[in-house]
Amino acid sequence: MSDTTEAIEQVTSLSDYINKVGKLHLTQERKRKQLNSEKQMNIYYRGQNQDFPNTLPSLIRNENYLKNEDKLINDFITKYPELFGNCQNNFDRLALMQHHQLPTRLLDLTSNPLVALYFAVERSNGSTNKDTDLIDGKIFPFTNFYDPVPLCQSLTDDHFENIFSEFTSIKGNNRQFLKSPFSDEIEIESSLARLNGDDRNLVLNEVNDFYKTLNSVDAKLQTYWSNLYADIVNSSENPRDQDNLLETYEFLNKMSSTKRLYHEIKKDIGDFEAKINPLELFVPKIVTPRIIDQRIKNQRGLFMFVPFVYNYGFEESEKKVALNSDEIQNRTQTRINILRLLSNSGDPQPMTFVIPHCKKASIRFELENVGITESFIYPDPSHIAHEISKYY
After folding, report:
1. Of 201, 203, 221, 280, which is most buried with the most CB atoms under 10 A?
2. Which InterPro entries does the record match to this protein (predicted)?
3. Looking at the domain assignment, is residue 2 inside a domain?
């Protein structure tokens, strides 16, 4: 998997963890002031009670799941249509499927650091049938503002390094990737997940070709696309075109597979302006879901919408080559890392809290004393019954 070096912080107790988290938030506040941003630079957390080699969603860890993403989604909706009566769009449906443990491209996060700590020390046999109290737990902090270092690395890995200038032209509030479940970008990507595999791959192929063309243009004229897309959105009579980028974009926007994507969107939410910004598809987003049940409310749950990585990439020679499963996972992980919180050092690295396995039981006890219990995390009758039975 990804060979990114990490900044490791070891956690030995609840008070130790709270102290370290407090320092993170102070650092983020200083960064916000440096950017002169009116928006909060939030921190989100993902706790894992097993030492997985990555932070990929289950869908992307499994090659067969990824190949059949649309079938997983549509089969589940067909078998349990009554579950989705209160869903307002395709993202709501994805969030509910994730809630019911269907593999999706959503990554579970929380805004409550204590909830993440609970997940990191939670005792279970997990999918590996190993006692997780014999394995170190991990917590991965994320943020809603991208950092230029991992973004540049991700673009460079895909040989689109010149596009970096398009993102660095974005200042202040617009650098944040915190989205509403009702945003156009999230609707586009949620609907793309439901599109049949052939159509989805055709769209992603043209998006990749667009990146290739833009990479050539930006080598000469930095931040070119930002200006052209503004002209497209405003229906300018004389859009600022260069090297036929407008023609490349219009081909993507009008091809039959993209039209089927727009049809899926309009079928889902009704009125929708048929415009797509390909740059949005490259980066991950933090999405605040609607509070559909008590569990999401208690867990302060959010999701990262993990971007699509096309199964063909470019070499330095611009030759298109097939990517194997490991390469797709590595590139996906690199894109996820765009929103990883980096250490405050001369050589910033993604931060990770590690909970030694020998400290898990004592930290669980400390969490129970402050109300972070099994029945709080999972407020349903079966988990409440299990918690009660432990006392007798």
Report:
1. 203
2. FRG-dom (IPR014966)
3. no
